[in-house]
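Thanks for the sequence, V.! I ran NADH-quinone oxidoreductase subunit E right away. Repeating your input here for the record:
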Amino acid sequence: MSALPGSEEGTAVTGLDSSPVEPAAPDLPPLTAQTEAEAREIMARYPQARSALLPMLHLVQSVQGYVSPEGVGFCARLLGLTKAEVGAVATFYTMYKRHATGRHLVSVCTNTLCAVLGGQRIYDAVSADLGVGHDQTAADGSVTLEHAECLAACDYAPVVTVDYEFYDQQDVESARELVAALRRGEKPLPTRGAPLTDFRGISRQLAGLNQHADLAAERAAIDAPSTGAPTLAGVRLAAERGETAPPLQHPEPEAAPEPDVEPTSGAGETASEQAADTAVASADTPAERAGAAQHHPDAPEPAGRQPAERGGEGTDTPAAHTQSVAGDARERDA
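Predicted structure:
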């Protein structure tokens, strides 16, 4: 469900999706025996199988492009969950899509810093070019567009991601050209990070499986640069100025204070009584001390209950009451 029914922006902000699941398209790729084998490979990584649900949902998306009703049932069957349990997870996280996505997913950050620096203008321009709004796909199936509340790259604002790869410090014209290139079938290199693939490919990667066709592509993704000048600016300035952080001081741990135990003679005390004495003496607060004293073997019985009233079997029924009940029973028998 959505906290803001009917609001696309509300769904983007809260991550709670109330949109209906579209019926499966006739050409939707099936979840095959190979998909099930890969799902079981994922399940084997976890002590409890249900912990594999998140990557398995990404696996479904890598095959079908979104979490379809078939995909929900697939995960539920393998993990021993209900469809409602799987659906609750799939509708909570915005990375799981409820209808078919385009070849690429374009996310435009419109959160505070990116918005101040032009993120909303970028979104509006790209939306106009594609003729779609939030979480909608262009007519040619090339791009799905979405608001993003934060892409964790404030030092590179405004930021756009394509299939979760970063395109930093964008402006309206650079973002429009990026989207146009995607629609032409091109894959512009991200500012940093792995070379671009597509939405289904990155979904397979998020499932913990290899999305690359060969070793060269895999190495290119691993060896790609992951940081840029804004992130390293502080380190560079510190090196130029010869500045270093002060060494971290590790104070010696203080010895724990000895408990303030009152000396006792111990003469004639049982082990349980000595332990109770220690518990009372070492209590840190009045409440703890009162509780320990209440359970001390020498503590007086509460009013209305005397030690003699407790029989050998531990009953709290007073003896006089027991005798009265027994007498009444004899009278009835007579």
